[in-house]
């Protein structure tokens, strides 16, 4: 049976004048991290990440904006769809989507908070056990096929490696969209696998969650991060495609 590619089951909540900036039990006091791309919040059973509002963009000493996140809203929309798709079509450990919505100019994705520690926290001699399990999960993803390029809902959010040509420098304009791709069908790829996106139970070395599916979708198999990425910290730019 072909995998289902319908939209996520969580509801889309639009902004209204009476809507708070963040839903209970999350508030700015629960913010655990801010980057040039996102803000992250965590409560006991809930994890939320959102795009930055324009007044939160990174600026230089002169006050000029120096970094505008690329496809910030679309990436979170794609992640919501990808998580729902993977949960319905595989047994991979991924967080459940609770809600996705816009609030005061920011797009928010609320998911289940998952247990475990980042793969980067393990001893080096423990990691091969985890990577062996991860390889099986990647193989499972590759059994999901489609003749349509992009995410489950049709959004095409190319990973940084594809947009940069593998050298870390992002392309701009029409060249961002891949124009020479192998023949169909495409396979489902996570496209951002690295140590910080893999949670593990340190007592059993079992993977408890695979996170950050913003760039996921159907692409040629070679677009998936090479095995060298799995032991890196952060994005897999600067590596040659394999």
From TrEMBL:
Keywords, in A-Z order: Kinase, Transferase
Compositionally skewed regions (Low complexity) per UniProt: 1-18
Superkingdom of the source species: Eukaryota
Family matches, as Pfam families: APH
Keyword Transferase set for record: yes
Region (Disordered) location: 1-27
Gene3D superfamilies, sorted: 3.90.1200.10
Domain named Aminoglycoside phosphotransferase: residues: 69-224
Membrane found in the keyword field: no
Example GO molecular function: kinase activity
Family annotation (PANTHER family): AMINOGLYCOSIDE PHOSPHOTRANSFERASE DOMAIN-CONTAINING PROTEIN, AMINOGLYCOSIDE PHOSPHOTRANSFERASE-RELATED-RELATED
Name of the protein: Kinase-like domain-containing protein
Lineage: Eukaryota, Fungi, Dikarya, Ascomycota, Pezizomycotina
